[in-house]
Design goal:
The structure is a homotetramer of 203-residue chains.
Chain A lengths: L5 H22 L6 H8 L3 H7 L3 H18 L3 H4 L4 H17 L4 H10 L3 H29 L7 H20 L3 H5 L4 H11 L7
The first copy, chain A, binds a DNA duplex (21 and 21 nucleotides) through helix 3.
Chain lengths: 203, 203, 203, 203
DNA sequence: AATGAATGAGTCTTCATTCAT
DNA sequence: CATGAATGAAGACTCATTCAT
């Protein structure tokens, strides 16, 4: 057994990635030096480059775990029995939780770079956005069929949900106090509003 | 004694700011050098610093015109006669148009920096977000009163609208084809969905 | 007069170039850091880049003065009266002197990079080699005509001369003691040998 | 006890050296990384250091085979019967062929480093230049004696030959078209010129 | 002997900012 | 106020070399 066990390498890669997430979240991508990441990961500067093409690669590397997080969020089977309102709430809750972990600091960094970095954008779209939307559409279709409800604009509906999620996080990150204070109740309230309509009487 | 007329100075400031907006939109904030801006504005590098504290000041300077744009969007008087659906649509349309100008390129840059730059964030909140939300809440209140409709959660409703706007732009900027293709019809469709609710039958 | 006088800039450029020549000659191109050059020139690191594209540009910049040196070496008018032997000697002497200045240290560096740097090679060929060879051919032609001598292979003859020059310098630079010791007498001896032929009795 | 046969080690050393020659010739010495050589040789990076002191050692290692090539070029016995012109031509041809192999690419690299690397220079002088010159002088002496010809300046004559060889290669490497096109005929023409003299009538 | 991951010193280059003219 | 040359701190990245396995 001559080779360094791949597991160790994977572990180190992960350690670097974790460090990167931490430091990026704290200081932002541009304000973070490669050395910052290296020190946070407890490796030498050059070691970073054994695992990632360049500094930007660290960011790209952050996407993949995120996509796994996104995928794991939904359990299609469990959804069929839900009411529309609960169905919606679940789909709001999932993504909301995904970034809540570190108080949305990583969200900040990722979005910041997404806006400006085409490659990252493509990767994010491919690995996170498209799967998420796809799963949601599928789930929605299945749910609708199971409940004998017509779904005239499933695709649009799903976009509304995801847009709402992003928009809400964005506003919260921007420092909207009302959202911050009512964060816990938000998914429910939003679900009510969406299902019942602005004009109507929600639960 | 010929003192340079302030107007001229204001004009030059504006010229620099326009140049900055243009170049930032094209290359992003970090990828743009002060020299890029200077050249685009037709002034010397050093001149920039006669009008702005530093590079970041250019960004801050971009906020103010934007706030005027935001404010000008709504005409409270004209809103009262509208149906709820149309009221909503108008409030979606305005902000959507605000950034559409240069194909959302400036939106990209601003959001990118907002995520990461506390000072810019505060300024943006103060000059753009808060006024916008405030105006919308006020308009909504006035509309509700005029139409004898109760508004149990005006604040939340307004957040839903603005979140939706941000989220939708975000997703479009991310490259969502469905949104891009149906962009024109989007405000109407969203208004329908919001007013009628997911469960219901829209107009 | 607002502008920095171009003369000053040219002077500074020259100062940097001189410094580069000095430092390169001493340590070689690769072993020299840009900072070495900057310090030798008494400017800041960054200033170098106001005058040259990059480190390699310093090398390219060294070519041009050299070409002027090469050109100035010959005075066509004075050549016509010479004997063939003296004509040859003059043409050996010129280039030999060109690099003798700093004990061939710069020759070392230039040749070292010429061997490996295509761009430098092209520039050197265009600005130094071709003009030199051209001038020599022309001078040789004029001399031959003036002296009623046929020149069956002027081009080849000129190559032989220049090759000999380069080869001789090369071998001296390589540390050939015999050449070093007899350096002063060399042009004459070579001229004798070339004109009279290996077999024969020189003038 | 199975000890690795020295032959195998020598073979691997040779393989590494061949790889080095190939890669150096292609990319130049400085532009080549030790890893490049290792990969070209099919070994691990670290293995290189079991056979060579350091990267420079690879270059030094290239000299030795070259010296063998240089030595093998001449067969003293066969030379005695030649005419002076043919004797000269043979001595031009040999070294010319030595580097022709890979289109002078290796010549480029070696000369490039020779110019700048004292240690390499010493080694090259000792193992290649001095033997070559010595052999040639010896051969020339023997030939002169055998043909009853006085050799007043054997040493200088030999230098002229080797200088011419180096100079001609140098100019060809520099991109002299005339030399490139007439390469095959060159040794003959040079021999004619040298033996007959510039003034005279060649064979 | 072979491996190849880790190291970290070393360099080029960029660019925001200053300030003498 | 305008200019733009000078500055020099800062940082990404490379790569020869080492050494534990």
């Amino acid at each position: 057994m001559k080779k360094t066990l791949p597991e160790e390498l994977v572990a180190k890669r992960t350690r670097i990635l974790d460090a990167a997430a931490r430091v990026f979240a704290e200081k932002g991508f541009h304000a973070t030096t490669v050395r910052d990441v290296a020190q946070a990961a407890g490796v030498a500067d050059g070691t970073i480059y054994n695992y990632f093409e360049n500094k930007g690669g660290l960011l790209l590397g952050l996407i993949d775990p995120m996509s796994r997080g996104a995928r794991g969020q939904v359990d299609p089977a469990a959804l069929e029995g839900l009411s529309l309102r609960d169905f919606v709430q679940v789909h709001l809750l999932g993504p909301l939780k995904l970034f809540e972990a570190d108080d949305f600091e990583l969200f900040r960094v990722i979005v910041s770079e997404l806006m400006v970095n085409r490659e990252l954008r493509a990767l994010f779209r491919e690995h996170v956005l498209t799967p998420m939307t796809g799963l949601a559409e599928e789930a929605f279709g299945r749910w609708a069929e199971a409940n004998g409800v017509p779904t005239p604009r499933a695709a649009l509906t799903v976009r509304v949900l995801s847009s709402l999620v992003f928009g809400v996080i964005l506003q919260r990150v921007m420092g909207d106090d009302l959202l911050t204070e009512n964060w816990e109740a938000l998914p429910g309230a939003l679900a009510d509003l969406l299902v019942g309509g602005l004009g109507g009487e929600a639960t």
